[in-house]
Predict the structure.
Amino acid sequence: MQQLANAAAKTNEEAALSDRVHAAVTELIKSQQLHGGDIIVESRLADILGVSRTPLREALQKLEGEGLVVKNGRSFVVRAVGLAEYLQSLKVREVLEGEAAALSAGRVPPAAIKRVRENIDALLAAPVYLPEAHWQSDDEVHSLVCDYAGNPVLAEMIRHLRMVTRLYETLNLADRLIPDATEHLEIIEALESGEAKLARQKAQAHMRSLYKASI
Amino acid sequence: MQQLANAAAKTNEEAALSDRVHAAVTELIKSQQLHGGDIIVESRLADILGVSRTPLREALQKLEGEGLVVKNGRSFVVRAVGLAEYLQSLKVREVLEGEAAALSAGRVPPAAIKRVRENIDALLAAPVYLPEAHWQSDDEVHSLVCDYAGNPVLAEMIRHLRMVTRLYETLNLADRLIPDATEHLEIIEALESGEAKLARQKAQAHMRSLYKASI
DNA sequence: CGCATACACTTTGCATGCGAACAAGGGCGG
DNA sequence: CCGCCCTTGTTCGCATGCAAAGTGTATGCG
């Protein structure tokens, strides 16, 4: 349980305690130190994070609104995403990220493209596999697709869906390194070329690839 | 301010106080007794609802997670949806509801279709215009599209987007009665026929119609 | 020996209280 | 007369305390 305290300490800026707790718990869930289905005992988690129950409860309520935790009877449990929901989310992402890619095609600054490409190359060249680096590269690519589509609402939806898919824990990430990198590079190339139809197609193909790998 | 207390009283089942408050405030926002941009004074609203600040704050945090209120500095304000965001949401809905309609085509039980059709007819035949009835019919039609698509994640996204578009207050609903009813009937007919492409097209056309009416 | 009841403990729900940040208004000095 | 600072009131952030609901265990009775 000591790692939990560390994760909390990582978020020690000058801000409202309640918000820091929210960020800390979010991180605990994303990093799967709290995994799906875990029931949350308020006083225990509050102690670990070094705060009283009030700000923790507020953070949990907010997380419930965001869909990261759910109330089961009287207590909060970390949301568990099963295969069915994961696949459904991928279907929706196929539609949305396809659209976003089409909208972004030709609008991404060359500098951003260059940076993301280099990170993918570095990831492929890395001597040992680091899940964190994989996630980060993934974030970069999909952010590229979202952020230049000129539709913040669309971007926000995609971000939320990506969060959900990330909660699906069974996925074996390491196996996805090569396919992800390959498909990401294709998406980036399409974005660069400015061909909207191609970008849409590549983004959708990426989602379908993930889908097939998970059945 | 007395109406506010009434809205609260409407939600007086046997449940956790915090959840009742959440439902009450949601209703206050949807019914625009609290409108976008209003700053929320915790103690005042808590008094009106007849609870202490703690459950109210928890409800507000949850609403923040859901995106119905936002924190501005130290206090909560009701989220204001502007024209830009409204139009962006419609664009996303065009994609998602199109997809949902295509998926639902031919899968909606005849009884459900019949019920919704009758309500549209009743709405058109009503001697006076009732916004509530208009909203309810709208809900029914779009729920038809969502609920039979076999993808709860997709349905949930659409529901959330519809919430956002509903917060856009400038829209003059009465002017939309005829076009909405007409387009809704076309969507329903397409769903009934089982032609996925047609259903997608009709749903998208409905969104584009809303879009054009708002520019 | 099995079952039911009561008791103790854990955990949550909510209210209240206090300290601190922020806003406003008035008084004082320039 | 204008501007600055200080004072006062309001509102928020958080901790704590208490009551109620739930859970598990042990004990007594059938």
Q: What stands out?
A: Residues 1-12 of chain A have pLDDT under 50 and may be disordered. Strands of chain A lie at 39-40, 69-72, 75-78. The longest strand of chain A covers residues 69-72. Residues 16-18, 51-55, 58, 73-74 of chain A lie near DNA strand D (CB under 10 Å from a C1').
